[in-house]
From TrEMBL:
One GO CC term, this protein: cytoplasm
The EC number(s) this enzyme carries: 5.3.1.6
Species of provenance: Laodelphax striatellus (Small brown planthopper)
Reactions listed under catalytic activity: aldehydo-D-ribose 5-phosphate = D-ribulose 5-phosphate
Pathway terms, separated by semicolons: Carbohydrate degradation; pentose phosphate pathway; D-ribose 5-phosphate from D-ribulose 5-phosphate (non-oxidative stage): step 1/1
EC class name: isomerase
Bilayer-spanning residue ranges: none
A GO molecular function held by the record: ribose-5-phosphate isomerase activity
UniProt keyword annotations, A-Z: Isomerase
Protein name from the UniProt record: ribose-5-phosphate isomerase
Keyword Isomerase recorded: yes
CDD domains on file: RPI_A (cd01398)
NCBIfam families referenced in this protein's UniProt entry, alphabetically: PRK00702.1, rpiA
Taxonomic lineage of the native organism: Eukaryota, Metazoa, Ecdysozoa, Arthropoda, Hexapoda
Length: 234
């Protein structure tokens, strides 16, 4: 339906514009990236490209293997040309909320190793301000023993509500690819929160591994629109 078509065309444009022979590409996580990996596999096959793919999650690793793409990692490829990834929400400053799929930590690490972070998203992710459309809160990966004190400190600093993300097909909390828990922080929308300082403050709380706030990292966003066109930012 139109949402998948929007994801597909955004993914296709991004892959066609940012992948060339001998590229080392970070592969993001989620549902939109599936369209990007499909397009990448098409191009590698038809153009006989030599491309190394570095995953940002177990899901991304499976995608790379299933599509018979060349699997790399940060030990052998610590400097990437480009990371292509999805987002849960993009604001007017290209600050992202990521982590809806629970993969934010490796995504942020791989994104930080790339010359460019290219985001692909359908039109529902494009917001003026964070929280306009994405209502599940900002994901924060925490070391399991610390989830209660971290929740308390976040609420003390900034207010809002913090919930421990529970697994769906397993009793108890969701456990990430790194063996940690995730807190979802529904931040207060009536304050004008300064995302760079919010991100730094939360990241410094002992027990916090990473936040799903990607500040100042985005190079370009490809939004798939309902009419079948793609809107890009620079
Ligand atoms: O969990 C993540 O960070 C994903 O990249 C998420 O932000 C986008 O997932 P989607 O493409 O399935 O919406």
């Amino acid at each position: 339906e139109s949402l998948n078509e929007a994801k597909r065309i955004a993914a296709r444009r991004a892959i066609d514009e940012h992948v060339e022979d001998n590229s080392v590409i970070g592969i993001g996580s989620g549902s939109t990236i599936v369209f990007a990996v499909t397009r990448l596999a098409e191009r590698v096959k038809s153009e006989k490209l030599n491309v190394i793919c570095v995953p940002t999650s177990f899901q991304a690793r499976q995608l790379i293997i299933e599509n018979k793409l060349c699997l790399g990692d940060l030990e052998t490829h610590p400097e990437l040309d480009c990371t292509v990834d999805g987002a849960d929400e993009v604001d007017r400053d290209l600050t992202l909320i990521k982590g809806g799929g629970g993969c934010l930590t490796q995504e942020k690490i791989v994104a930080s190793c790339a010359k460019k972070l290219v985001i692909i998203a359908d039109y529902t992710k494009k917001s003026e301000r964070l929280g306009d459309q994405y209502k599940k809160g900002i994901p924060i990966e925490v070391i399991p023993i610390a989830y209660v004190p971290v929740s308390i400190k976040i609420r003390e600093h900034f207010g809002g509500n913090v919930t421990l993300r529970m697994a769906k097909m397993k009793a108890g909390p969701l456990v990430t690819d790194n063996g940690n828990f995730i807190l979802d922080w529904n931040f207060p929308t009536d304050k004008n929160l300064d995302w760079p300082s919010v991100n730094e403050t939360i990241t410094m709380i002992p027990g916090v591994v990473e936040t799903g706030l990607f500040v100042g990292m985005t190079s370009k966003v490809y939004f798939g629109l309902p009419d079948g066109s793609v809107k890009t930012t620079e």
